[in-house]
Amino acid sequence: MNKTYKTQSSASNSLLRRFNFRLTKQKILFSSLIVFLALLSLGGFWFTSRYKFTNKMAVKIKELSNSEYPANPALLSKNFQRYANRKLTIIKRDTTHFDFVLEPTNTKTAKVVIKNVDLKLFVPKVPESVKKDKNLEFIALIEREWNRQQVSFPANSENIEISGGDGFEKQNISEIALSNNCLNAGYWEIALFTKEDNNKTLYYQGWFTFPLGHYKNLFENNNKISYWDYWWPLEHWQEPSNAVIKINLLRNVIDEQAANVTFPLDERIIASGEQSRKIRTTLTKNLITWRDFYSNQKVVKFAAFIPPGFYQPEQTWNTQYWRIGKFEKAILRNVKPVNNQANLQEIELLFTDTKTGEKNKLIISGFKFQELPRLPISDYAKGLSMPLGIGVPPFLQSYAELNKQHPDESNYFSFLLDSQNRWINHHQLGVDGAIMHLDQDNRNLLHLYLLSYERNTLIAHFLVNRE
Fold it and tell me: By CB distance 3.0 to 4.6 Å, which of 76, 282, 378, 411 could disulfide with 80?
């Protein structure tokens, strides 16, 4: 083979390789474009489906048996699951009012309708006083979703219809509850109760996803802002990062004084009502006194509360109680909310982080000291029980109470803050709220209890003497 031929052959092979490379590159680019367009199409389909809604929607409802949910803390009826396998239809009546129709799938089960419910009171709404600050707005919105709102209707309410079935439900339903669970947007729940031995007992429980298209429209109607400004944190549990809280945008201080406060660390843990039923969701052993939460000898753990809204002991929730490990002092203030002239009270509890030395504080504001209920300690659960946040409703209330006091109109707010007034994620720390009541015999003595993550247990009892 001569040199000229070799040279020509080599050149031809080189051209062929370059051509094949260009062809391969084009194939890769073309294939990548096809994949991208396919993914874009699938994403668009998912997104459209996720927010699709109609005025009448069949919504899948999930029911769990005793074997599927052994950690259920509810007081269960002897008729639990005897009237199950229901279907749910949600009907939009107007801009904010909806019906929830529980349809039977057999002749013994009744049809139960929760009708004409004003859902603007269930979907987050920013109080007017916080709209001037993005951090306050952000926290007001996510705290509404991160805290449970359980609203009850008596069986004889004008909002309830019960028909059909074998007669048991029509005669024995005592209360119906609709809940926006303390999870991401859309995780809701319906519960039906009866009375047994003078106790309210649960006989039906169903979880469902409230249609996010309706949720989006309710949110925008409530707040006059785009849902897309906050959709990700509302749906994916995203917290604000290093948010500084400007409390003076919420209230003005009239005066303040050091409070005479006792925290009896060696007092035995108090439990009744919901806390007595949630012993099975408290996973740490040998918790006997308040001191046991703050000794740093053990990590206090609870069963995690997971979608769609139940406790899972196999998935634990760790706490950070060392961040409020040492109680230092308290301050009592008289305050005026920025949006009215009411004279209200505020208490600030100051703590030292026993690991870092950081000074953290819990502020509870916007309550009337002398209007708190007067109760014995054994009835603490009947006190004012509120989550942390801004414009939040109580954990439990009736629909009539909700209509009288819209959450966004409330003067009550509470936060955990560090020494720089930066918001602390209290859910991670393990505090979900507080209960307050006056002493049964001494109207100047305030009992203040802190509620753990998911209200599993009380973690503190402060005695605040106003004299």
Answer: 76
- The helix/strand/coil state of 127 is coil
Q: Which two tokens stand for residue 378?
A: 């054994």
Kindly report, residue by residue over 180-194, the tens digit of the pLDDT.
Answer: 998 899 999 999 999
Tens digit of each residue's pLDDT (9 = 90 or more) over 97-119: 999 999 999 999 999 999 999 99
* Cβ contacts of 357 within 8 Å, gap of 6 or more: none
What DSSP string describes 344-360? EEEEEEEEE-TTT--EE
Contacts of 307 (CB under 8 A, 6+ apart): 183, 184, 187
Question: 89 phi and psi, to 5 degrees?
Answer: -125, 135
Amino acid at 43: G
Helix, strand, coil percentages (3-state) for the chain, rounded to 5, are 30, 35, 35
Q: What tens digit of pLDDT does each residue of 199-237 get?
A: 999 999 999 999 999 999 999 999 999 999 999 999 998
CB 267 within 8 A of CB 353: no
Q: Are 162 and 170 in contact (CB under 8 A)?
A: yes
Higher pLDDT pick, 60 / 339: 60
User: Which run of H or of E encompasses 253?
Assistant: strand 251-258
Instruction: Tell me the two tokens of residue 369.
Output: 């000291």
d(CA 319, CA 255): 35
Buried b (16+ CB within 10 A) or exposed e, 356-387: eeeebbbbbbbbebeebeebebeebbebbbbb
pLDDT in tens, 7-35: 455 555 565 555 555 556 566 666 665 65
Q: Residue 77 in 3-state DSSP?
A: coil
Cα separation, 315 vs 317, whole angstroms: 7
